[in-house]
Amino acid sequence: MDCSIFCRTKLRFSNAFFLLLIISSVTCLHVVFGTANEFDYGVHCNSVVHESKPADEEFNITPFPGRQNGYYSGGDKVLNNPPSRFYSPPESRTLLFETHHVFTTHADDVFMVEGNLIFQTWFSYEQNISSRSSFISSSSNSSNRGTLDFNFRGFWSRITGKLCMVGKGYVYSKEGKLLHLAAVLKINNLKNSSTIRTLVTGTMDSLNSVDDPNYFEQISLLMFPQVNYTYTMVSKQFSEGCSEGTNVQQELSLRLSRTRTICDMFLGGGNAFELQYIGSCKSSKSCNPFGDSIGYLPSLMSLSMIQCSNDRLSLRFLIEFRTNSYRGYYGSPNISTSLIGEGSWDEKKNRLCIVACRIYDASSSLEKSHVGDCTTRLSLRFPAILSIRNTSTIVGEIWSVKPRNESGFFDRVQFRYGGRIQLQGLKYEYMQMDKVKKSCPMKNPRNSSNRGQYPYGYSPDMQFRLWVIERSEGIMGWGSLDPLAVGDQQYQRFPFLLPSSSSKPNNSGVESDSNSGLLNISYKISITLSSSKLDGGLNPVNDSSNESLRTKIQISAEGVYDIATGSLCMVGCRHLRSGDKSFSSDSMDCEILVKISFPPLNLDMRSKIKGSIQSMREKTDPLFFKPLQFSGRSYYRSRIMEPIVINHFETRSIWRRGFDLIMGQIIFQLLGTLLLLCQLYCSRYNNTVPTTLRQSIFPSEEIPLIGDR
């Protein structure tokens, strides 16, 4: 064993232990001496809610649920990180209010409230909500200061709906100095019941003077109430179903079961829908829910569920519009260009009907926000049949019920969801198999001895990423290929979820035959290419400026996979776009040939998948493009390729990591014991232990990420 490695590791942990010991001691002293000085509630809050002596009885009704999410703006000195390389903070950001205790007092309908207000500003978490991929970007800049957590205590009046609290927190400045912050929090509209027009708003102000280094600018807050919410809009508007919505035959949409309700379909955060405009949408005003108030025509809309009803048939949404698919996880939508909506599931027609309202005056200060103009309608459904022209698992439309000549009216806009949803009964119908027979002639049947050497239809190796897309000019981009269906059944992400019925497609020109080794298969292809290297056929329609550095191309394809040879041949349809906007689904180029060769399973894990995408049009056709060659590797192989070869250096690295892990556990157990003693001592000064300290001592009590539901 290399003694130098052991000595260096031991020295490193010794230094780390004493550093942690010093930090914990400073933290303990800060808690002890910081909690001893309470701010005068009466001076700052008696004019809002008069202070009253608390009783010992804890109240079982709270102004908030246990954890209430919301948004904030302002407070740049302590909250606004400068833009990183990948991410610029939006105008409003997210917060979390944790209610710890609510006590009755000697005054009727006045209650003492204790809780934490948490602002998360640690890092920029970017999420592509179209593809559900994500990455974390952090910066070494000292302005990335972590979570700002305020401990508050105050009083709530159930009659007036007002809450006033005083408290404190600390954060590091841009220069790395520790700031001790004192604040007063004032919140309105915290009442026993609420509707779609009720917004909880408020402010948080510094208790320090303007020239004090601990001073910060006013922070405004906005929250959507969740206590005793009443679904008034959907009960009135949709008693007879979606008014003025496009009628679709009931059998063309999937039903939802009692075990998987409409609320279950929207769990897990935002869902991005691509907006598809009709030909009459010539300006941002004619098809824009916000008219002239924003200077762009949105290309994406997302629905983020706020709350679900007890019967799980109605739900509330925050509906956001934007021009790109990336958003910061801790960056909220721009409230001034978002809608608040109520939805109800129509079991007769298998669709969700939504009434949506505008949120006004949120751009100047969130405290001034109010709801009005509830004339926007949405409906969405889950198609029962997918095809090469319709690969979306959710489709819908948004429209205005205003008269056409009235201000604020906009034309009907369709939207589609490109993500994967597993629903019972979903089928795929092949439409291009005659063209596949002509473009992909079948060779003589292979010897059965080759069977099993290549991935089977539902293998995880069938899903792969394109690492390189190139021509003779060089590398052009990257992408991914995701199976949509095998036979007439939706492709399952996991191989053990095989369909119970046969995979024989309906009305196909080439039948799936497991005995001959031929399978009908459908794919969704997403590629990103350098705009500077595109020829005419791949450029967005009516857009020759190439101002964007990259162009995204979506292709749906279907064809035949030969299990005996690992060859896949498909006809593809490319979705045509005008600039960065998507128009009718009929705007498609279906003269594309896709060929793929899978490597044998018994070859080295580093073997690549190779293929090509080429146009079948004449060279003089404006949609013709030069062939694209690509290579890639399946997601499955990419995950298990790393441990194939471990040399002597890697073995020593693994040993060091194991030793570091053991020593780290010992150190943090000692640190936990020290903090526990600190907590017991501090409890004499304050009944409520700060959330950050409680998490250090009891790591099993998880505090959810901002935005989790």
UniProtKB/TrEMBL annotation:
The chain crosses the membrane at residues 661-682. Residues 1-28 form the signal peptide. It comes from Gossypium hirsutum. Keywords: Membrane, Signal, Transmembrane, Transmembrane helix. The keyword DNA damage does not apply. InterPro entries: DUF2921_N (IPR057425). Pfam families: DUF2921_N. It comes from the Eukaryota. This is DUF2921 domain-containing protein. Residues 42-220, 261-413, 436-628 form the DUF2921 domain. The gene is LOC107900912. The keyword Disulfide bond does not apply.
